[in-house]
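Human: Note token order:
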Amino acid sequence: MQQNKTVTEFILLGLTQDPVKQKMVFIIFFIFYTGTLVGNLLIIVTIKFSQTLGSPMYFFLFYLSIADTCFSTSTAPRLIVGSVSAKTVISYNECMTQIFALHLFGSMGIFVLILMAVDRYVAICKPLQYPTIMRRQVCIILIIVAWIGSFIHSTAQILLALKLKFCGPNLIDHYCCDLQPLLKLACMDTYVINLLLVFNSGAICSISFLLLMISYFVILHSLRNHSAEGRKKALSTCTSHIIVVILFFGPCIFIYTRPPTTFPMDKMVTVFYTIGTPFLNPLIYTLRNAEVKNAMRKLWSVKITSESK
């Protein structure tokens, strides 16, 4: 870490300074975060131990749930604790670590969503070649590449953050550390860094969203040649993925593809994709997926039966 900074810690202002609203924030986001942990861990355990969820789609869903759990954990606990604390102080090193974790697991979620779209494209548009193209070794390599890509992206983000010089004030008008709110506090010209931020995070969000929507358009267009039952199953799966893509990428594009200006809704938009989306993903992928629900029932019924014996 750089040692030439007069600011060694920051104060996070959180979502609100109103004591009554802070209690509401604590209750609401404690429930959201608990639901995120329970829902995603349930999916992780079910896919890990189920004999019926061995397809590439569930292999990728396993890693999406891991990414979502870690992504939410990088921000939610501090928001929850901060809502009942007199002052939320975060050290400079902790702030940099949070930025790294936020972008590592956020970008991993993006890359896994892309891999899930690729999997659906091959399954629907090239069904005969699917077992060969999406074999287990290929899926493992793709996940490794996704982790490497995420690490490169988050490293680029942290290098940009480390270039910022802070000499006061140290009040971050946000509930977490990220480059956008930190740019406002830097006592230096941040024009170039903001351009690099937009080019890095903004480009990843925008291009990924565009590619995903094009791929799902191609998939849905190709369904016209399938049977009614095949169309229904494919539509159910693709609809779930499209909902997740829109919920996640909409807020990301809003935050990372604009000049360094702030809006009153910025914090709530960030809350939606850092805490809201990881909470909704398990609901979307389980409530709309009969295979996952059946696997959960079988797994937990076997566990309960074995324990009763």
About this structure: The domain at 9-308 is CATH 1.20.1070.10 (Rhopdopsin 7-helix transmembrane proteins). Confidence is low (pLDDT under 50) at residues 1-5. Strands lie at 9-12, 88-91, 171-172.
